[in-house]
Amino acid sequence: MSLKPAPIPRVPESTIQIAKRSFPKGNVYLQMRDTLDSIYRDDQFAHLYPVDGQPGYSPWRLALVLVMQFAENLTDRQAANAVRSRIDWKYALSLDVGDAGFDYSILSEFRTRLVSNESGAILLDALLEQLVEAGCLKSRGKQRTDSVAVLASVRALNQLEIVGETMRSALNSLAVVAPQWLKEQAPSTWYARYSERFEDYRLPKSKKEREDLIKVIGADGYQLYTAVYHAQELPCLSSIPAVEILRRVWLQQYWVDDGKLKSRSANEMPPGGEWIHSPYDPEASYGRKREWSWVGYKLHISEVCDADQPHFITQVETAPAIQPDRQALGPIQQDLADKRLLPKQHIVDAGYTGADQFIESSKDHQIELIGPVNKDTSWQAQTAQAYDASLFDIDWQQELVICPQGQRSRDWLVASDAAGKPVVKIAFDKQTCLPCEKRAICTRAKKTGRRMTLRYPPERFESLTKARQYQETPEFKAIYKCRNGVEGTFSQMIRNTGLRQSRYIGIAKTHLQNIACATATNILRFIHWLNEMPFAKTRTSRFAALAAA
Fold first, then answer.
1. 111 with 511: CB under 8 angstroms?
2. Is the pLDDT of residue 547 over 90?
3. Contact partners, residue 228, CB within 8 Å, separation at least 6
4. Entry pTM
5. Cys-Cys with 430: which of 10, 319, 320, 449 at CB 3.0–4.6 Å?
6. Residues 168/202, Cβ–Cβ less than 8 Å
7. What pLDDT shows up at residue 544?
């Protein structure tokens, strides 16, 4: 397929007449085309196609179909049928009434081009540029960011299912690449054991039988991988993705002791973030948020939340489910900077905040990061009248700390905490602290003086101290209230676009889906803003209304 960029055609007159008659009060897609034109252009996608070859279907149309598809949570086949049969879709796409559309497989091919060239961001960025030109999207206001779970398109498997399905997946792949070689290697028992899917209801119920089956599968997998490794006449076998996944899962689940393969105990297994939870989507990881856990990915959404502006989504970040939220904050803000859509105030929850995040937001992007931080968990901070760290005078230049009683510290040692972050460890002389009359509200050490560990360098300590003080003020609570509105965005996207469940395998394709969902949501919100539709109010149950009355 090649591309010859062409100007966007006007909507055919016959399509206009029928569309206006069919929707005398307007329609989302009619208003979208009338106010935003086509949104996309062929030249924006020129780098996805070769210069020579059979002309392909117009990419600006495919991009728009992709967005409208997720606006209504349609499958590829349903979206292709909508292009063929719906007058509002034909209007948006500048198609004649009698246009026969295209085969639904073209949508999958177009998504593959976007993912392969890492160009999915065009879908959202092109719309944001038009919204900026229209004057309804501005930078340096308020934006809020939060994350939501996205389930992988694969089943969550238990330990027995993981090893069984991984072995079965490797056998199926080898049966395609080297059927004759595999036939020579596979014992007859493998055909009965691995021909059908491993599903828990068909597997043994007793603990001993399940443990025995895990050992048997482990020995089979070890035998298969050894045969692949020694297949010198077929060196390509070891590079098959399913075989590499088999190797990684076996390292995760088994270990070799004196030539014998043994199952790992729970304490011997690698960290959860390194686990492969399904051989069919090795990038899907385990995530947990409060009491809920899932296997899949984590989506970070950033949106404008100024009171006098429509709440458009400005940035989409898809990350592994295991990744802490604060690790995504830097890439999110950098992407907003590249789009020239940085906020002045960035409102987030406690998962995104930390000493480094406050410093980097202010220093790199001149952003005021607003969000709660974890409180000081020391017993002094939790006890009234006790001497917590905030009551000590710290002289960073002299490397000296003075306690509320006027005594000076003895030791000042720069070190690292468990996360590898710099800290300074401070100690007071026991000869000073032991006779002190305020000792009971300062330290519980019986044989030493007061000891403290502070974040280092000083800006890390000061930024966190300032944030803890600020979050107790009425001003912080008034600003932070608007963060709750992002839950409504998640609800809207889940209901309208099917955001909760990924349709595709892998983080790259899932990210493209998330971008399309955000773009579709922005279009809907733009039309609602044009029609002066008010924001939906929080629903109140009949019983709760009685209390309000």
1. no
2. no
3. 174, 237, 238, 243
4. 0.92
5. 449
6. no
7. 85
Residue found by looking up tokens 């009171």 in the block:
307
List, for residues 303-361, the tens digit of each pLDDT value.
999 988 899 999 999 999 999 999 999 999 999 999 999 999 999 999 999 999 999 99
CB 213 within 8 A of CB 200: no
Q: Which among 210, 214, 216, 163 has a CA at the least distance from the CA of 187?
A: 216
**Cβ–Cβ contacts within 10 Å for residue 302, how many?**
27
Residue 113: how many CB atoms within 10 A of its CB?
18
Q: List, as one string, the DSSP characters of 130-169.
A: HHHHTTS--SSSEEEEEEEEEE-SS----HHHHHHHHHHH
For 186-228, what is each residue's pLDDT tens digit? 999 999 999 999 998 889 999 999 999 999 999 999 999 999 9
The burial class, CB within 10 Å (0-12 / 13-18 / 19+), for 222 is middle
Amino acid at 534: P
Q: What is the DSSP string of 233-292?
A: T-GGGGGSHHHHHHHHHHHHHEEEETTEEEEPPGGGSPPGGG----TT-TT-EEEEETTE
pLDDT number for residue 183:
94
**Partners of 142 in beta bridges:** 345
Report the amino acid identity of residue 286.
Y
- Banded model confidence at residue 534, pLDDT cuts 50, 70, 90: confident
Q: What is the DSSP string of 350-397?
A: GGG--HHHHHHHHHHH--EEE---PPP-SHHHHSTT---GGGSEEETT
Residue 206: half-sphere exposure toward Cβ, Cα within 13 Å: 3
Nearest to 326 by CA among 301, 352, 355: 352
What structural domains does the chain harbor?
13-119 (no CATH), 142-147+295-373+476-530 (3.30.420.10), 159-274 (no CATH), 379-457 (no CATH)
Q: Which neighbouring-strand residues pair with 289?
A: 292
Query: Around Cβ 399, how many Cβ atoms within 10 Å?
Result: 14
Instruction: For strands 285-289 and 292-304, give the pairing.
Output: antiparallel
> Exposure pattern of 140-179 as b/e (b: 16+ CB <10 Å)?
ebbbbbbbbbbbbbbbbbebbbbbbbbbbbbbebbeeebe
Q: Bridge-partner residues for 302, per DSSP?
A: 145, 315
- Among 305, 344, 353, 304, smallest CA distance to 325 is for 353
- Region 293-301: mean pLDDT is 95
What is the distance between the alpha carbons of residues 290 and 271, in angstroms, rounded to a whole number?
A: 19
Beta strand pairing call for 345-347 and 142-151: parallel
Q: Identify the bridge partners of residue 292 per DSSP, sorted by sequence position.
A: 289
Residues of 332-365 as b/e, b for ≥16 C-beta within 10 angstroms?
Answer: bbebbeebebbbebbbbbebbbbbbbbbbbeeeb
Residue type (1 letter), 204: P
Token pair recorded at residue 395: 């002289």
> What is the Cα–Cα distance from 452 to 444, expressed in whole angstroms?
12
Q: List, in sequence order, every residue forming a beta bridge with 370; answer none if it has no partner.
A: 347
